[in-house]
Specification:
By secondary structure, the protein is α+β, with helices and mostly antiparallel strands. The protein has helices spanning 7-15, 17-22, 31-49, 94-108, 124-132, 163-166; strands spanning 53-57, 64-71, 80-85, 114-119, 136-141, 150-156. It has six helices and six strands. Strands 1-2-3-4-6-5 form a six-stranded mixed sheet. Helix 1 (7-15) crosses helix 3.
């Protein structure tokens, strides 16, 4: 889970060109703002929903490189998969690996029937990740909080790529 100690990393992430381009500028300019972002976003979500954005870190060094988790958005009818990495770590499989873990948790522990995801139409890397994970595009919608329109994806629990492997197995 993200905590106040992650504020320097979160500040760097929120100012990263990839975040600003694909997610949008959240106006976080200093460590105090990063601490508020953590408290009002991920920490609140952990308390209220039992899930939220989690820190992605390199195994050998514990260096934080991104975030991934379940997010509640007012514009969507259910939780969605959110993920982003610092630009220098993009395209190396980290977001795919983290997303697989979050998807499994969403269906197995949280017991969701479906999981949503939202991205910019121009974010081809995120779109590819979602499609490889089994998500299907369901609609394009204007998103007032985002720089342009958004594409919404859905993954039903029964349709996830590993769902058939789980049938008949016991936990």
């Amino acid at each position: 889970e993200l905590n106040e100690d992650d504020a320097p990393f979160v500040l760097r992430l929120l100012r990263d060109p990839g975040w600003v381009e694909h997610i949008g500028d959240r106006g976080v300019l200093d460590l105090a703002g990063a601490k508020d972002y953590i408290a009002d976003g991920p920490r609140r979500s952990y308390r209220e929903n039992g899930f939220g954005l989690m820190r992605i870190a390199l195994r050998q060094t514990d260096t934080p490189i991104g975030i991934c988790g379940l997010v509640i958005r007012e514009s969507l009818p259910g939780p969605d998969l959110g993920f982003t990495l610092l630009t220098e770590y993009a395209g190396q499989g980290y977001a795919s690996e983290a997303s697989r873990i979050v998807i499994q948790d969403a269906f197995d522990r949280v017991k969701l029937d479906q999981l949503l995801a939202i991205t910019s139409p121009k974010n081809s890397a995120s779109r590819r990740l979602l499609e490889k994970a089994g998500f299907v595009e369901v609609e394009e919608q204007p998103e007032s909080a985002e720089p342009d329109s958004s594409v919404v994806y859905r993954l039903n629990a029964a349709d996830r790529p590993d769902a058939t492997a789980r049938i008949g197995t016991s936990a």
